[in-house]
Amino acid sequence: MNRMLRSLSAAALSLTLTAPALAAGMSSFSPSVTYTPFPDVADSAWYAPYVRQAVELGLINGKSGGVFDPNGKLTLAEAINMAAKTCAIYEGDPVPTTDCQPWYQNAVNYALEQGILTRGEYKDYTAPATRADMAGLFAWALPATELTRINRIGDLADVDQNTDYASEIYLLYSAGVLTGNEAGTFQPENTIDRASAAAILTRLALPESRKTVVSTGYAGSVESPDGTYRIHVPQGWQSSFSGSTFTAGGNGQKVTITTADRTQSLDEAAISHLDGLVNAQGGVNLTVQPGYDLFRGLTAVSFGYVEGNLTHAVYVVENGTKTCTVDLAWPEGADLTALLGLVDSFDLTM
Q: Where is the SLH domain (predicted)?
């Protein structure tokens, strides 16, 4: 299940990307609750400092009976409530209260308003949240611009293009909010306990607590001449570099990747690329309006268009001093396994 794009385009004809309203910001995350130690959170437990910080920040609460229940399974309702609180504090909005029926309804309403959650996304809010669900909610609690990349993440063995909320998972890994386990896996389908949720919430709200992790790229990857990215070309596909442009294709599908020195904002670079397509083709049949998106865990501006019998998805990504434009093209009815696998291997350098 994938969350819909948050479009920034107010009018299709003008293609103007509007800036978000000013928010209270990360400085709003400061202790606001007095911490009372929980009898089931030992001082020596790895999660003890995270529980304390998350409680003091007002992001998580204890449970009835004065316990924290660190090993308890996080429910979707709890995850939505935590994401809504995080977003509200950042935005400077009133934090959703629980004096309603059911207790999580105010949080759900706020999450829907803010785009953290989409209507009908979940049928049972009392069900346990998977680790992928948690990432899909928490990643939208803050603007992607507040999730600055500190890690280069090549491949997570158990997260691919078919994994729910894969882009959100990679975003949080890249930002040091998620760290996975010693085996280098994320276990997206597993449930998540409240202790782990406290740690992730703390890293989300306090950038200084985020973790640097080491990850390797796909075996057999090729690297661009300027060192901007690495990518794995599917077996049987033809590929080549020509200056700053990489092309690869097979079975009627094609990917074109172009890098350039970053001289414009992300919005401006995307519109410049679209203007170039309009001029070259005498017009473009847009199927998806330009809007902010996630691409391999990085903030991007994306749009879609049709050219002849090919559907195109374009992502413009900032990477250090470079802007990287990725154009994916495929014919209707094509088996996209290889193309999506190529995207899944795309690894931008720091």
A: 34-97, 152-215
Separation between Cα atoms, residue 42 and residue 30, nearest integer Å: 24
Beta-bridge mates of residue 239: 248
Q: Are the C-beta atoms of 220 and 209 separated by less than 8 Å? A: no
**pTM given for the model:** 0.69
Alpha-carbon torsion (294, 299, 304, 310), positive or negative: negative
| CB contact at 8 A, 56 and 35 | yes
In the chain, beta strands by DSSP E: 6-7, 222-223, 229-231, 238-242, 245-250, 253-261, 285-295, 298-307, 310-319, 322-331, 347-348
Beta pairing partners, 290: none
The architecture (CATH level 2) of 222-348 comes to 3-Layer(aba) Sandwich (3.40)
The β-bridge partners of 242 are 245
The domain ranges of the chain are 31-209, 222-348
pLDDT, tens only, 203-253: 999 999 999 875 544 455 788 888 888 888 888 898 899 989 999 999 899
SS3 158: coil
